[in-house]
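Example: DUF3263 domain-containing protein.
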Amino acid sequence: MMKRHDKELADFALRWLPFGGPTEEDILVNFGITKEQFHFRIRRMVDVYPESELGRALLRRLQAKAAVEANARFEQVQ
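Written out as structure tokens, the predicted fold is:
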């Protein structure tokens, strides 16, 4: 069963997906964590929770967004 805090993170991420994701400030104000920590937790949820808990559409959208964020960070390092 998905933890309440994880569900709140997933719902927040889903609400922001159409707008390219939440800003650093929105994440900090709502959860008290950095954008990097937020995306790490979203990626962890995608890996940990079964599709039945996240829902197929949410899972696909979160996976796609997490991949985009990971690529953006990788390109910044290089």
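The chain has one domain: 4-77.
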